[in-house]
Amino acid sequence: MSDTLFIPQYDNDIEKMAKAKKKLTAAQKRARKKAKEGRQKKYMWIFMNGKQVRVKRPPTIDGMDVDEYILKNADPIWLHQNEMWEYIQTNEHEDIV
Predict the structure, then answer these.
(1) Of 68, 88, 67, nearest in space to 77 by CA
(2) 8, 24, 81 from 4: Cα distances, Å
(3) What is the dihedral of CA 69, 73, 79, 85, to 10 degrees?
(4) For the range 35-44, what are the long-range contacts, defined as Cβ-Cβ under 8 Å and sequence gap of 24 or more?
(5) Rg (CA), the chain
(6) The whole model's pTM is what?
(7) Mean pLDDT across the stretch 87-97?
(8) Rounded CA separation 30/36 (Å)
(9) Which of 20, 42, 50, 62 would suit a FRET pair with 74, their CA atoms being 20 to 30 Å apart?
(10) Distance CA 65, CA 78 (A)
(11) pLDDT of amino acid 63
């Protein structure tokens, strides 16, 4: 018998192990949460060709679509100045003198 001692090599096993995850600090968690909220306000998820895609949200004013807001709040003079004549409501039943 030989007097050599068998020593297993652990170096290879340690390299294969997954790296331990570091926990985020409170400041890092707040920053990630704030960034996520900003992305959710700026983008939305839709499906295109069977895949989920992130696209920019359409612009809104007070939660309403821009065109809808203009139709509700614009007066005829402003619509005329901005060449939006198709949105000007006229009374067709008025008699023109």
Answers:
(1) 88
(2) 13, 48, 98
(3) 70
(4) none
(5) 33
(6) 0.49
(7) 68
(8) 10
(9) 42
(10) 18
(11) 85
pLDDT in tens, 10-50: 666 666 778 888 999 999 999 999 999 999 999 999 999 99
- CA proximity to 87, closest of 62, 66, 58, 60: 66
Amino acid sitting at position 45: W
Q: What percent of the chain has pLDDT over 70?
A: 80
Q: How far apart are CA 28 and CA 22, in angstroms?
A: 12
> Look-up: residue for tokens 């704030």?
34
Q: Is 62 left (phi over 0), alpha (psi -120 to 50) or beta?
A: left
**Distance (Å, whole) CA 91 – CA 30:** 56
Is residue 3 scored above 80 in pLDDT?
no
